[in-house]
Each structure stands twice: as structure tokens, then as C-alpha cells.
Amino acid sequence: MRNLVLTFVACLIISLLTVAQTTRHPLSFEDAATLRHADAIAVSPDGKTLLYRVRFGGAKGPDTTEWKLMPVTGGESRPLALPEKFTPAGFTRDGAALYGMYEVGKMAQLATIQFASANTPAAAGAMPVPQTALPRGIHSALISPDGSHYALLADPRLPDPLEDVHTVIEAEATSLYVINADGSAGAWWCPTLRDIADLAWSRDGASLAILSQTPKIGFHYVQSFIDVCNATGPRHVATIDNAASNVAFVNNGKELAFLSTTSPVLTPDHVWTVSIAGGSPVDRTPVLQASAIHLSSDADGNVWVTIARGVQAEVDAFQNHGLVPTYTWPDGTIEEGPVSPQIASAPNVRGFTVGDPQHASNVAVANGNTLQRVTTEGDDQLAKIALGAVRAVHWTSQEGIALEGIVTLPADYRTDRRYPFMVLPHGGPESNDLLQFSMFPRLFAGIGYVVLQPEYRGSTGYGTDFMSAIYQHFGDRAYRDVDSATDFAIAQSWADPGRLTMFGWSAGGFMTAWSVTQTHRYRAAIEGAGITDWLSFLWTSDVQQIDYDTRWPDKDPDAFLMFSAVMHSEGVVTPLLILHGAADQRVPAYQGRELFEVLAARGKTTRMVTYPGSPHFPTVWEQRQDVFREIAAWLARYNP
Question: For residue 199, what are the β-bridge partners?
């Protein structure tokens, strides 16, 4: 009898598991929109409490944001009752309050908000206390390691009294404003520095390292500048004849570390140092076959560098002028971090944001050199979803280029059949795809597609030579790499060669628009916010774009028209859907409109949809849903 009961229970368990698996459904847009993601924000001065953010969307409007506190050891989280217009950046010196930015009269100002009591959430109805009233607000705030001051980046100009009537086009200014922690004695430090991109406090809180960069307007080159600034003024340390990013004191304050490059594509990818006394900067990672994509320091003087190694990112310690691999996230990637106490002499506690293809972004805390996930946002939602396999893949193109990509398979994938296929080149282009939960590949896999994200030449993560190979060659070298991804998918028997599609946004949108002028292999294509006319784009984007080509367009227009889709529209046969934010300043909407008009005039199959008020990618979920709806309808019609 006992054996019969055990057998019955075992069969029941198997039956229930089978039912649970068969009731899982493919990822829908509603699932993706409401999926909860967690990000590490700050650690309290006593090292015991973690501040993190939870983001998720819905049917309409922008993301909903929840702020929570949790013991760094994990456990139950406690929601914070913060006003909607307050964005916390960290804890005050005593840990009894949060500081951050609070919108006052449409301008962000420095503000603090007290906890209801020690280590407990803010009381319902508690309001932030503004500490500044700068006429153009502030961009960011950073507390000093001794907790006595805040360094603010802000626009020092007075408001335009006619701003409701006109907009003056000019280079924006960003300067340094320093204020006591109690809100007193605020002053502009080193006011001659007006193009600040990043800063870092010295460990004693007496000075700041300042990284500045030439603005876009008025220049056809990029230089970066490093200064040390205190209340008496700036002291110039170095001029870098290239782009640079991030800055930190290192070697007990004797040197400054920063990211820069020797590449013409102007994307910082190596770690450099320069003596605090000045001199020539030195590349400390000259043979790095990866990309240093972020550098930061903590209050104890440790310097951390996020390194993209292919489709995964790790965090390395920068010690003795070298990189020491320290933190990784197996089967996924470190997305952000570390965050640690901002007050000196605090415990060495470090929080990270981590992700992988099977889980939403979540928070992990370092335990030695390993990371332990302490939040589980999205897990209960994804338990109801049928997700296919996602993995990194490698191939060699016909011209002998070793390439990597990420393939996403449908949940019901079978090796004995071929599937409709989508190649999805990333934006940037000096960027890369990472092994994390990515909405678009998952959505298209949910409707039955095999999706391949190729890391073409120009991508970060593979060394400077690989990245800079795109310079003046986006339309040929990168194009051939993306096209080889489709060849690879067919060779692997994933892709039905008669049901090929392409979709990309921004730089990926360029690649899509350009590809359909070069090949007829795709049955349907979708271009989102892509560059279609390089000749006019170079001057009209809101950020410097000479990383593609530094030649003057008026001196050599053919060099820019050579890879412009609008100049090669006659041979297009692939039905092309064009999507664009109407308020896009990164790639102005006329880029998509120009290609749409010329295709329509030639009788090509095309459709253009714009999104009112939308920037480079829609920020409200009803528009994001329409993006997916338009794409799904286009695919159903032209690649059934």
C-alpha cells in the first residue's frame, strides 16, 4: 500500500509539473511591459542597508518607479514613500536621510529627505527639502567622502527671459557648483571650466578631479581636458587629443585614472593614468583585447573598471597600473556597479546590477570575489512564461573575420525544422549586445522567430582594432559582418532561407536601411530611427558624430553619400517599414522621412510611422506597444 501511495504521489507531481509547463505561454508585449527590473543605487554609510530601484511599465505612460531599502545580506525589502519628482542619489553622512534631485518649478534642485526614524522608510507625505535654487537647476550631485559637501554639475548661465518665445541654438555649458551639506555657502568653483563631463572627489574632500570635453557646436574635432579644482581655482593637469570619459584619483592621490583611446571612432576603451602634477598620459592597457567601458572609484580610493569581453561584462580592480579581474556574473553579465558607501571609512560593501537571459535585472552583493543575488524581481512573472534558449555563438565570415553573436530561439524550437529568421544589429554602433534579458529578441522569439544579434566590426568588447575598423567603413565592413550572420544562421539550419527579415534601431536602423539597398535576400525589413543620409546627418544630430568620418562633408560629399541609403533606393525590392520618434534629436526624423519619400516616389513597398513627442526611442509604453504592433503586422504581411 505504501508503495502504491508513493507511486500515486510521484505520478501526481509529474502530472502537475507537466500541466504547469504546458500552461506557460510565449512572452507577450504585456508581459515584457510589466516585467519588473531592479537596479542597485546606493549603500548606507554603515554598510548595512542597500537602496535600490524597481522599474516596470504598463499599458500607458512612462515607467513606474518604486524605491526600496533592503539589508545588504538580503531579506525583506521595505518600500520608500518618496515623492514622484524626487530621485535619490545616495545617503547623507549620518545615514538619516537621502540626497538627490527634486524638481522645483520644472528645474531639478539638490534636496534631502529625512527617514521617519533611523533605518526606516520615509514617512508617508514627507517632502524633500531643497538645498539649492539655481536658475537652470542641476544635472547631478555627488557627496564628498567626508560628507561635508556636495559637488553639483549645473548650467551656470542665467535663464533666457524669452525662452517661451524662442530657443537660441548655442553650445550648452556645464560647470561645478559646491555647497555645504547643510545647504549653506554654495559657490561656483573653477568657473572657467564650462564643459565638464565628469568629476571625482579626492579622498580628503578638499578637491575634485574634473574631466572636460570640447562641446559639439563650434568644433570639428574632440579634445578632452583634465584639471584639479578646489575653492581657490583650477590647476590644469593634461590635454588629451581624443575623447575621454570618467575620472578618479588613484595611487593614494598621486595620479588620476580615466578612460580614453587612440581610435578615430572616439570611443574610450582603455585605462589611462596621468600624474597629478601633470605630464603625458600613459595607456595602462595597451594590449587589451576587450573594452574598458566604465571607470569609477569608491570612498576608500579603490578604482573599478567595467570590462566588456565580448557579450559579457565583468568588473576589474585597477591596481598597480593593471587590471585584476574581480567580479563576474556567470551565464550573464554585470550591468552596472559597483555601488558602495560614499562616506570614507565605511565597511567595504559593494552592490551590483546583474542580469542574464532567463532573469530580469536584479541586485547582487559581493561576498568576497563572488556575487550573491539578493533581489528576485520578475522571477514570479517569468515563471509563467515559456522562454527559449539564448546563447553566445561564434563563426568566421567569408573574409576571415572571427565574429560573435547572441542567438535567441523560440520556446518550442526543434532541430528538425527551420524557422523564420531575424537578424537584429545593435545601435551605437560602438556598443554591443550583452547576455541579459533583452525585450525585442524575446518578443520576436515569442512569435516564432529565431533571432541573431551580430557583434559586427565597430562593436565594443573585442579590442580597439576591431572597434575602429568601422571608421569610414560602416557601410561595407560592418554590413558584410551583419550579412555573414544571416549566412551563419542558414548554415546552422536555424533559418528558413525563404523567410529572412532584418530589424534595427539607430545605428542598427542605418544597417537595415542600407542592407536593403545592397541585397534582395530579406522578405521584410524594419528600420527604426536610422541614418539614411550621412551628408546632412553629420551636422544635425544633437551629439558629435565625427566618429564615423572626420572629413568635411562640403569638401568631399561623395564620401558621405557613398553609404547613404537615399542615394541607392532604385534597386530596393524589400518591403521596408520606417519607424521614428517625431522629436528625435539624435537622429532627426527627417532622416526616415527622406528615405520614405524617395521609396514611395519610386513605387516601392514602404510605410512610415512617427511617434509624437518621442525622442530617439519612445519613452511611453503605448508608443512602445505600437512599435511592436507595427513590426508584427509588417512581418505577418510580408514574411508569413
Answer: 210
Residue 23 lies in a domain: no
* 107-114 sheet: strands from edge to edge: 86-91, 97-104, 107-114, 129-130
| 277 falls within a domain | no
Residue 471 lies inside a defined structural domain of this protein = yes
Give 112-153 as a 3 state SS string. Answer: EEECCCCCCCCCCCCCCEECCCCCCCEEEEEECCCCCEEEEE
What range defines the domain where residue 615 resides?
A: 386-638
Backbone angles phi, psi at 50, to 5 degrees: -110, 130
Give the span between the Cα atoms of 199 and 143, in whole angstroms.
Answer: 11
> In a 3-state reduction of DSSP, which class is residue 509?
helix
**Domains in the chain: how many in total?**
1
Residue 331 forms part of a structural domain = no
Contact 338, 352 (CB under 8 A): yes
Q: The C-alpha cell of 161 is what?
A: 527671459
CATH of the domain at 550: 3.40.50.1820
Q: Which long-range contacts (CB under 8 A, 24 or more apart) does 189-193 make?
A: 189/229, 189/230, 189/231, 190/227, 190/229, 190/233, 190/234, 191/156, 192/234, 193/227, 193/229, 193/234
Q: State the cell numbers at 71.
A: 539589508
CB atoms within 10 A of CB 301: 16
Please name which of 104, 106, 98, 86 lies closest in space to residue 150, comparing C-alpha atoms: 98
Strands 78-79 and 64-71: antiparallel
Model pTM greater than 0.90? yes
**Comparing C-alpha atoms, which of 199, 159, 157 is closest to residue 176?**
199
Indicate the helix (H) or strand (E) that contains 305.
strand 303-309
pLDDT in tens, 325-374: 999 999 999 999 999 999 998 899 999 999 999 999 999 999 999 999 99
Q: What is the CA radius of gyration of the chain?
A: 26
In percent, how much of the chain has pLDDT > 70?
95
